Amino acid sequence: MNGVRADYQKRSADSNDVRCLLCPHNCVIADGGYGKCGVRENRSGVLYCTHYGLVSALALDPIEKKPLARFKPGSAVLSAGGYGCNFTCSFCQNWHISQTARHAHGGTPESGAGGYPLTMSPAQLAEAARNAVPRGNCGLAFTYNEPMINLEYMRDTFRLVRREGLSTIVVSNGYINPKPLDDLLPLVDAMNIDLKAFTDDFYRRMCGGTLDPVIRTIRRAAEKTHIEVTTLVIPGLNSSTDEIADLAAWLAGIRPDIPLHLSRHHPDYRMSEPAPIPVDELLALADTARKYLEYVYVGNV
Ligand code: SF4
User: Fold this and answer.
1) Which residue, judged by its Cα, is nearest atom 2 of ligand 1?
2) Taking the complete model, does pTM exceed 0.90, yes or no?
């Protein structure tokens, strides 16, 4: 049977139900069931990470693609993805890996092109990162899907990557509880955190989550590591000048040198519209954000 015992779990006193304490969903999972993320399973009253070591994609990417603009610019980073997500964003650009884990319970996720999924131990993944150094690799990034839901695998791998003298990078939606975040941060050199919008309504309607935990994550992470923030701009949903101004002003209140990436969405997954924001409108939003922040970038243009 796949997987390792999960951390961050609490068993019910009078049944086999288990509460997962990893992310703010705090799922209560019945025996034989999975949490919302689709990668944590209750087996007879014990929670397991069923996708530990399963890699859905592995590529050497420019670090700017994470996006990170002000952390080791010009380098490449070995980038690994897994399966599943604790959000259900209807505009997800990586839905084929983020939303498929829940349909693959009890076995290996459906293989994609190119022989995926790979099964890689933390040692094998760290070795792959080391072997990519001659090609400009600076470290290992967990990205593509939401890596926090498989935190145990990321943590075990990062410990070995650090021993190689390489950098550790997380690209995350920031939807994680404080304790596991605090446990992970000492192992993280840089993060890109999505701030998908600056309204709780957007998070509830579009993502199946809430805004406050993400804000809390950004605050905490900014104290401990290099962070950059990404907002995927979707016309009519999170693209008002007022909302971007509020978001940028709030971020500047933490530190005005936190880079903000305003990225242009393209219709995907369950959203066939709206059309991507016109580039001149995105540039105008970037100018608005620059009234508060020192480093604002536009992406996907
Ligand atoms: S990590 Fe998964 S199982 Fe745990 S609370 Fe979040 S969605 Fe639920």
Assistant:
1) 37
2) yes
